[in-house]
Prior knowledge:
This protein is α+β, with helices and mostly antiparallel strands. The chain is 21% helix and 31% strand.
Amino acid sequence: xxxxxxxxxxxxxxxxxxxxGNPVHLRFSPAPIDxxxxxxxSDVAQAKPIPAIYHAVTDTMMSSNLTNELGQRIGTxxxxxxxxxxxxxxxxxxxxxxxxIPIMDGSAIEFVQVLQQAGIAEQTSAKRYIQVLQPxxxxxxxxxxxxxxYDGFVLDFQIDFNHPAFDVSHQxxxxxxxxxxxxxxxxxxxxxxxxxxxxxxxxxNLGLGGSMQNAIVLDDxxxxxPEGLRFDDEFVRHKVLDAIxxxxxxxxQILGEFYAYKSxxxxxxxxxxxxxxxxxxxxxxxxxxNVN
Length: 292
């Protein structure tokens, strides 16, 4: 049986906001048992915690964005949540000086590194998991996301882009989720976008911090980044990274098989809402066969 986890000591991190283009300061602090993951806007007077939970997701345009009962918002949480999930951190306070988490290099690796630097501390209460009890699936047009019962956490993801940079043999990825596999295969996979879309966003005062330093940028024929890709299948690996972060908004790690075809933030959240809509779909457990 594993114990709940937090970090050993506070630690700071600074990066650029993807949409604002302005510096964003983060401060990670240890949190008590059963606190969960909560954000706090340090730039807002009378700030209240914003819980990292699926039903606080109010916007999934380009990212997963959370809002509390006072309307205080924090956006682009999925890369950080993915890193937190990988390190199996249950309780953490994150102070943020802006309405969005910084984009860093477009992946999760810098979040992993700073949290590892703070140190992981085990607590005196058992970790809880959300065990999927029966198959559940959601669809929007041709997009699909679902869970099947499984003794562990596996993600099986497929994308489908008709573009020269997306080799048909590199559009599927399956991950048996644990810290080591995440760091080796997923953490460095960067977000990606098309040059025409980035130019449109900037013309509307969005995406002002986006660049080839924090995203893979594509034109009509291929990848524009001079260094190329970090993995041949970096695009689908990043979609797995996003899904891990989105699904950690369940409040605890999922025990089940997640499968997806062309899923994104909206469908990932819809799947969690469907899972929790019926108590027959899941149960909360403190151990499973893969954990002694």
